[in-house]
Amino acid sequence: MAVKRRDIENRLREFEARCRERGVPLTVQRREVLEAVLKRDDHPTADQLYDSLKERIPGLSRTTVYRVLETLVNMGVIRRLHHPGTAARFDGKIHRHHHLVCKKCGKVIDIHDATWNEVPFPEVRKEEFEIEDFSVHFTGICAECRKKTSWKKKVD
Amino acid sequence: MAVKRRDIENRLREFEARCRERGVPLTVQRREVLEAVLKRDDHPTADQLYDSLKERIPGLSRTTVYRVLETLVNMGVIRRLHHPGTAARFDGKIHRHHHLVCKKCGKVIDIHDATWNEVPFPEVRKEEFEIEDFSVHFTGICAECRKKTSWKKKVD
DNA sequence: CTCCGTGCAAAAGGTTTGCACTGGT
DNA sequence: ACCAGTGCAAACCTTTTGCACGGAG
């Protein structure tokens, strides 16, 4: 489910506060892009966000959307997803959650599962890698794709 | 660790058998690209594979590498990875394993962890999603990047 | 007032497509 | 011989960069 209205307001306020304390200029574009990401639960691409905002913000540049998204990711306010598909997708939900990824159509569905959230980090001392978080990709076939008869891409 | 020599031979034989039984033409390019992916453990991009093969296969086209990789993924012989970075990466290891992904440089390290492999699939009846497998992305900072002082953003 | 952020255009990758030719079955 | 696979070039899509202007602190 998408972030709730109340939560969105909190997130925006939190963002504004963080901008101020860091001296990061708070622009209309940044606020609007963040709000647009928070309002959706379908992991939009930069281009989809641009399309949904260009009417509200006349003269908005695609470039700016890319740059703002980069800024928001670096501030830890949103996340960049690396799932199937050519374009990067963005997620306003920054708490730990996992994804169902359809092998056929690439759709990404959020899931929350307490059991999975609590599995302890694996031992990776050998790799000298400092794990901060994790997310699980469950791959398979979504309901719609399962209904369709033709199954071209994946053969088996 | 990379796939072992013996295993590579088995995988190639298995691939040839599957081609025959499906009537998929077995070409030099397909065999060589598959072998090249199996021989490495660093999740190469299409371009890196092309570079490593163009000497062995004079006249090889980048396009062909892309097309062959697509075919191999569809046949289930290799996997496409969707990790940070602009280019898609490919993985010859098709058994269940997980990845350490560096937030800074985008490097992907394989890990095998029995505990993680055995956590049962979550309940997703509501989503009507048929889970087939999963893989876990552990995000954090790799050894090299941790040593570096600056901590701005990703490169590779 | 000073910079940083923005807009525009153009460049820079990475990947896909159209078409003619070659090679596997 | 037939049809799928390949090579080449160009198209395409996403993302990044250079530069001048304008708005936020």
Strand content of chain A: 15-25%
What value does the average pLDDT of chain A take?
90
Q: What is the makeup of the main sheet of chain A?
A: 3 strands, mixed
- Identify the strand order in the major beta sheet of chain A: 4-3-5
Terminal-residue CA separation of chain A: 33 Å
How many strands in all of chain A?
Answer: 5
- Classify the oligomer: homodimer
The percentage helix of chain A is 25-40%
Count of individual helical segments of chain A: 6
Describe the fold and architecture.
The structure is a homodimer of 156-residue chains. The first copy, chain A, has 156 residues and is of the alpha+beta class. Chain A is built from six helices and five strands, in the order H-H-H-H-E-E-E-E-H-E-H. Chain A has helices spanning 5-22, 28-39, 46-53, 62-75, 114-117, 143-147; strands at 79-81, 89-91, 98-102, 108-111, 130-141. In chain A, helix 1 (5-22) runs antiparallel to helix 2. The A-B interface holds A 70, 74, 80, 82-85, 98, 100, 102-103, 109, 111, 113, 115-116, 119, 121-124, 127-143, 146, 153-156 and B 22, 74-76, 80, 82-85, 98, 100, 102-103, 109, 111, 113, 115-116, 119, 121-124, 127-143, 146, 153. Strand 5 of chain A pairs antiparallel with strand 5 (130-141) of chain B, so a sheet runs across the interface. Chain B binds a DNA duplex (25 and 25 nucleotides) through helix 2 and helix 4.
